[in-house]
Amino acid sequence: MLQTSIKLRHFFSNGMKLKKNKRGNRLKVRWFQIQLFRWFKLNNRQFLWRKRNCTKYQSIIAEVLLQRTNAETVSRFYPRFIRKYPSWKALALAKKKDLQAFLKPIGLWRRKATAIKKLSIEMAKRNGRFPKRREEIEKIPAVGQYIANAVLMFCHGQPQPLLDVNMARVLERFFGPRKLADIRYDPYLQDLSHKILPKENAKEFNWAILDFASLICKARKPLCLKCLLKTKCRYFNKEKRVVK
After folding, report:
1. Domain identity same for 131 and 78
2. Which of 51, 140, 160, 225 shows a CA-CA span of 20 to 30 A to 134?
3. Computed from CA positions of residues 1, 221, 75, 208, in that sequence, does the dihedral angle turn out positive or negative?
4. pLDDT band for position 200 (50/70/90)?
């Protein structure tokens, strides 16, 4: 069950700025939010980086690891990583070859080890404090749009979408296809991912979409017949790609 108290009225009353003549879209977004929230209360995955006592360092490191592998793999590896490298300083002091060897079992050893090492050195210099402005955050080595959003949300409490290929898949199937191949630069998905995000409980809503993408709206063989969104889902109703 959820570890945080979520008020349903806050979950979907997020002040979305949709045009007045798009009332149908606005109602569809609210319905999407409510259904996902209800599903998440019963089906959310319990990961260590989602616990209330998780530090900012632990939250960001989890997101860094999750960028290149799946949550189940990270969940098995994450406790050992945190024990071995409990802080930015400990990670900065690690030898690159040792970090590579440590990350190799989950397939994140060369490029990812280099990126993590650069990030940890910079964060150790900053005493673990990220800047508050996106422009400054993205100047930090190994920080792109996704990690910048994670920093703004987990470290500074700003609602931000954790838009990756999994969230993009759910949004595309339900609302409509993207315009560009790269989700980082696609104006439709970028705009939509912000519009559907509640001002409160943004973390839980992001997790709800990501869990839903992993358990129901899978990349291959989505469980459409078990999906609580299927009555309003464009993918299910128009493309007819139903998988039992």
Report:
1. yes
2. 51
3. negative
4. confident
Q: Which tens digits make up the pLDDT trace of 127-145?
A: 999 999 999 999 999 999 9
Query: Which residues are within 8 A (CB) of 134 and not within 5 positions of it... i.e. 6 or more apart?
Result: 148, 152
CATH code for the domain in which residue 135 is found: 1.10.340.30
Average pLDDT over residues 98-109: 93
The pair of three-digit structure tokens given for residue 113, joined into one six-digit string:
């080890």
Taking 90 as the threshold, does the pLDDT of residue 21 lie above it?
no
pLDDT of residue 193 exceeding 70: yes
- In sequence order, the 6+-apart residues with CB closer than 8 A to the CB of 54 are 48, 62
Tokens of 160: 């931000």
64: left (phi over 0), alpha (psi -120 to 50) or beta: alpha
Q: Which residues are CB-neighbours of 149 under 8 A, at least 6 positions away?
A: 160, 161, 162, 163
Place of tokens 């300083």: 89
Alpha carbon distance 217, 209 (integer Å): 9
Residue 227: pLDDT over 80: yes
166 and 93 belong to one structural domain: no
Average pLDDT over residues 62-74: 94
CATH number at residue 227: 1.10.1670.10
The whole domain housing 118 covers: 54-154
Amino acid found at 104: K
